[in-house]
């Protein structure tokens, strides 16, 4: 356990993706990393304000159309510089939206985003989505089925991965459209 945590911290610090190094033994049936996918892609820097917003009862996920206030344990959000906030029922739909802004939010660009939040699974607190650690392949499902489970701290992520049969710990840049697609299968 300690060796795994140390390895994860070294990899994060050296900006080597944990997912790429561990996927030789990945048990996920349709793992995109095994097929050469999942290359790290740069993202724009987004500043995170001190507070995430709370959705109202009528706020819907722009990706799936679900009312998001019903799912506070998986709530995610994008805050734009124009003070607009878009809410999601889980990180999976947030990534779909973020990676396809032209489809879901025509006229907006990543550079228009002020902050991105996800909900830490253990603390149920909003955390910076860009620095969060995401577990895939676990036995925990979200409102839309298989889901990325976010954590702020390496120890939490590693413990959850072990306790819930997760297959990988990913950084924001590691979550590719192919990985998101594999969660919908």
Question: Could you explain the architecture of this structure?
Answer:
This protein is α+β, with helices and mostly antiparallel strands and 185 residues long. The chain has one domain. It has six helices and nine strands, in the order H-H-E-E-H-H-E-E-E-E-E-E-H-E-H. The strands form three sheets. It has a four-stranded antiparallel β-sheet. The N terminus is likely disordered.
Any idea what the shape is?
A: globular
- Helices and strands: which structural class? alpha+beta
The average pLDDT is 80
Tell me roughly what share of residues is in helical segments. 25-40%
Strand order of the largest sheet: 2-1-3-4
What labels describe this entry?
single chain, 185 residues, alpha+beta, four-stranded antiparallel β-sheet, three-stranded antiparallel β-sheet, 25% helix, disordered N terminus
Helix/strand layout:
Blueprint: H1 2-13, H2 18-22, E1 76-80, E2 85-88, H3 91-99, H4 101-104, E3 113-119, E4 126-128, E5 133-136, E6 141-142, E7 145-146, E8 149-151, H5 154-163, E9 168-170, H6 177-183
Antiparallel strand pairs: 1-2, 1-3, 3-4, 5-8, 5-9, 6-7
Short structural summary:
The protein is α+β, with helices and mostly antiparallel strands and 185 residues long. It has six helices and nine strands, in the order ααββααββββββαβα. The chain has one domain.
